[in-house]
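Forwarding the complex inputs:
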Amino acid sequence: MVLVKLFLVFAKIGLIGFGGGYSILTIIQRELTERGWISVEEFSDIAAISQITPGPIAVNAATYVGYRICGFWGSVAATLGVSAPSFVLVILAAHFILKFKTSPVVESCLKGIRPVTVAFIASAAIFFAMESFINLQALLYIDWGPFVIFVGAFLAAAFTKVNVILIVLAAMVAGLILC
Amino acid sequence: MKKTSAAVLWDLFITFFKIGAFTIGGGLAMLPLIEREIVDKKKYISKEEVVDAFAVSQSLPGVIAINSGIYIGYRIAGVAGAFVTAFGVTLPSFVTILLIAILFATVSGNVYVDKALTGVKAGVAGVIAVTVVNLGKSVIRDPFAIILAILAFMLTAWLDVSIVIIIAGGALAGLLYYRIMRMRRNGAG
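Prediction (whole assembly, two chains):
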């Protein structure tokens, strides 16, 4: 019945996963680490790997965690779970597209959800920072190598038009040298 | 459509397979690919409808690439189309990550892998921080949104409040706030 559980937990993630990749990252992290299905450190590894491999992060996380818990069929159950709510919701929305686009109820709800997803995305940034250079036990101690990479990536993403994936790959190479 | 539906399904599968395979980091990077393959080359669907698909995909929960695949697949070829696109867009990452999951146990703990991943985490933290700033500028523009974002952040970071409650709270707050604003506007006007 682990397979059913995997399917249901990932279906829940698919159902509440507003705001795209980075926002969903925070949601998945909470759902999985609180259940003890994966350690925070291992999750941060797979989340990092997701940034340099193709495909949506939620699918990557589902496949990885599913495999760790229940092998190949675990991967299948988790991936099916995370996409199942989309079938229902998107097909409904496609049918009622005009109503969906102009509904004040939908619009008001989304206006309330959007700031929440920005908060989730900020949490994702802090999550990665804590897994690389911030140490809560010793706040004044900063790991300089990863911190330099963080600042470099921030500046590159903010002020140049360099593709994000190139920035992340550069960060990976810099990690080999500086970390 | 019935006569060519196998060919249509195959085109949909291949297009979304490409999207799954080549859009690293996902999101809006796939829009040009969809436009080129589905709109310009095959003319299965209009450009406006792709824009609709994206708007819907981003406002609904779930993986944006899967959502837009389902929307476009469904519009072009019904439920079968939706299954084919969702399958196509997830297959590349499914296979890649499955291989990594099998291999990672043997390389995790390797000092070079750890260094490289630490670099990636630090870099991604920087990239996401920029996303937060940019999104903040476009989404958080009035006191209501500021309060909501700060509240959501504190509840997520420091208190063990369930994610479902935080999201539902945001939706409810939006519903109430904008209803009151509309009533006020109507009352005044």
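Chain B has two domains: 5-108, 112-188.
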